[in-house]
């Protein structure tokens, strides 16, 4: 019996949607929106089907699809899903319809906006599912163009600068990645890009470390890890709401995912070698991002720096190489996608009303838009890891799993949590509390469309906070395998920072 | 007892219903909220009766609800624990909570956010019950942070006022400083013992190395210091008085702030594994008791007097816990819940009558206009001062005796000093508010019955509450809590129990009389005292400059550092450095290609061509 190709379908349905939007007659903006929405909802439904087809008990990659792309060169089309990519795909498919709904008021170049969004979705899902390095690289690069267009085409005043910066930073990283991938291909005998086959490749330690660094730079730019983060605040500030949402919620995750999927499994010994180095960078990012967030006046920049801080937890967990921390790192990716995605959606709604993102120009909105204020508070609390909501699950697992590996770093990361509370509540206060400004008395509270965007996310935030077990049960076996690969390669502490 | 999940669930359901329905439920909001708390109280009573039916050594029952956090070696479930301590706490929370809900029906009447107030109040009760009923540290932490959230929401309830919004944020952030210590403590506990469940952790605790035990206990205590507003994290509580008065009564006096005491008592096997940790608890408590009692002397705002009083009384509870008199600490916690809720609600009644003005310098003579408020307040004040036979007398004297008997004579002396100031500041506040001639132009009226009834019930509880613990070893609470929580044995010392009580009580009476001499007798012109004291008065009135200290050493330098990092370092150094490297490459590439048009497009084109070229090369080579 031929098995239903869940993964190909979930990857390419958005692209098919994009094709439909392209061939529709001119000037039918409403239709483009609806087609895009339907395509993205369909993708989500298929992703749920994929979740149903996924066997929580089994280990390794599932729902594998293999095909030959270029026979003579051994280029292959390999898709597969495990507990790590499963929820990232779900997250992507979950947020895309909401991002499209949030873009309902985009009225310039609607057709191309929607096409860009759908192409972006295919590229993102493909990146998470590809198990062939060339195929992965293809999707990974394909992300850039639609995102570049979304920022540069529909962004704010400095959109061209921001889009360019985004493009060049990631492109520069990709160059290293591409060279390293080709190196691996030629090194393998027979030549192959297949991840599973390449895992068996014996490499001299020094070579593996250089290759690790090449992969690392590409992914660290995406995460972004300190000090490669400076493109992010600009990109976020200038991007339209949907762009910021997707950028923060999904695109950044591809960086962490890449580290977890490729660096750890291809170069386990090098991963162990650079472990402390990466953990230190992650913790610097956690603290540095939080401090920088404190100093921002622009809400979007504030959320952007908070992303730098939160993503640090994902990387910290990933490079602790313990089951608890890595599970926490993966679930933290999902959580950050939910809470920061929601934060950008809310900031967008705020901006549509007030036409400013300057915290000094806002204030007192709690009285005119109480529902908006309520959602903003819940999402902020999720982001500051209030126990009972989703953020806590990830951060707690990361911290408790990192502690035995490196006590000092864990303590520093924990202390940053105070700063998170400070900048988020301070921002909330400056937006919602205090006296209301005269020019802002007449803002409407949330519309039905806006409720439809926010309620699913908050439901997910509460669900993951209270019942994370279905997620943890599926993530754990996959990260256990990844952790074991690295641990078998032997611990080789770098920088001598390890505490026994 | 298997229905114990109803206890937290009822107020949660009330809160969610009120939040979702919003203004539509306004007419019944207060009634619904009060009813859910009453329901929880009844279920708690049932649990109490069930427990009493069990043999004394067997009074622990755990109800498993669901698996929560499980990964690797970690396995935390949502389990509720019914035991003597949790039931005493649940009864206090729901009992006092119910009275304060009823009081709020009238007090908050007419507020535009009336429904939301009760939604938050119910949510608070839910989290507080989660805190006291949790069977592991992580679930307790959920309640712990949850009550902090509700405290934040309710302090900044009138958020249009900047001072209220600031106070709410300050409360959340300052307590979170302590909570972070606590979180690290939990992590260290897990990595040491491999569990976060109470029973298992307490079983293993005595075997811990003393150094580790000290670290864990002190980190947990950091959380207690924050939540219970002890030095050095006490400065959020006086500002918390920006919230509506019922909130001050429930959260910032009777229940939430006592969570720290509950934590120490609950986790006492961990604290006992380290003598240093227990000693630190006792010292911090004693110093805070004295510090806040003196600061209370300088407050003109009646609620701020009570706020500092609460900080001081919590210090007494920590002193008790620190000398191992856990049952006494819990007894004082319960007694304090009665009389401090009474005092706060009395202050709220005055506020209600005086259009919000409770500066004691502008009050006076209110006993004639509002006798119920006045006389119930007097009962609460005398209980706070420790006069027999009121609830506070027994509990406070047992604390002092335990300190003395535990060999901490120095702490006993300091605590006696704190008790002396206590009698004096509450005499001052009471006399200036209710006695003498009016110093205001208003015509105040006694509050409506929904407000005075809770006052009378609480006054009744204050009158008879002492019966719960007529003696440290054999009081009702001590006996019910059981062996594990009993007061430490007396080490003898020079003085007998009777002498200790006589000393403490005479000091209280003496200071009450002194207070009356200055503020009630008319023989002293108290309005000139502050001028004569000068700087000392300023210091006391500003809580010994604790806020100013933080402002100068942490807040302002921190803000400046963040600004410098953001403006100069991030944008100036890092961004320029990284893009500079990039520019270097780009410049090379540009020279090589000699292309100047549309940068991205050409880059992409070159890239694409490169890829294709490589693929072609590869293809040519292998075919």
What does this molecule look like?
Chain A has 500 residues and is mainly α. Chain A is built from 20 helices and two strands. Helix content of chain A is 73%, strand content 3%. In chain A, α12 runs parallel beside α18 (407-432). Residues 492-500 of chain A have low confidence and may be disordered. Chain B is mainly alpha-helical and 623 residues long. Chain B has helices at residues 6-21, 26-52, 84-107, 114-133, 137-155, 162-193, 198-204, 210-227, 236-239, 245-254, 259-266, 268-272, 275-297, 302-322, 326-353, 366-369, 371-385, 391-405, 409-434, 449-464, 476-481, 497-519, 529-533, 535-541, 546-593, 599-622, and strands spanning 60-71, 74-83. In chain B, strands 1-2 form a two-stranded antiparallel sheet. In chain B, α2 runs antiparallel to α3, α15 (326-353) runs antiparallel to α17 (371-385) and α17 packs parallel to α20. Residues 592-597 of chain B have low confidence and may be disordered. Classes of the chains: A mainly alpha (500), B mainly alpha (623). The interface between A and B is large, with 71 and 67 residues.
Instruction: State the end-to-end CA separation of chain B.
Output: 78 Å
Oligomer: heterodimer
What share of residues of chain B is helical?
A: over 70%
- Give the fraction of residues assigned to helices of chain A: over 70%
Give the DSSP E fraction of chain B (strand runs of 2 or more residues). Answer: under 5%
Order of neighbouring strands in the sheet with most strands of chain B:
1-2
Low-confidence stretches of chain A: 492-500
User: Are there runs of chain B of 5+ residues with pLDDT below 50, and where?
Assistant: 592-597
Mean pLDDT of chain B: 85
Structural class determined from secondary elements of chain B: mainly alpha
Number of strands of chain B: 2
Please report the distance between the alpha carbons of the first and last residues of chain A.
54 Å
Q: What strand line-up does the widest sheet of chain A have?
A: 1-2
Q: Any idea what the shape of chain A is?
A: globular
Overall geometry of chain B comes to: globular
Discrete helix count of chain B: 26
The residue-averaged pLDDT of chain A reads: 88
* Alpha-carbon Rg of chain B, integer: 29 Å
H/E topology pattern of chain A: HHEEHHHHHHHHHHHHHHHHHH
The greatest interface here is: A-B, 71 and 67 residues
Order of helices and strands of chain B: HHEEHHHHHHHHHHHHHHHHHHHHHHHH
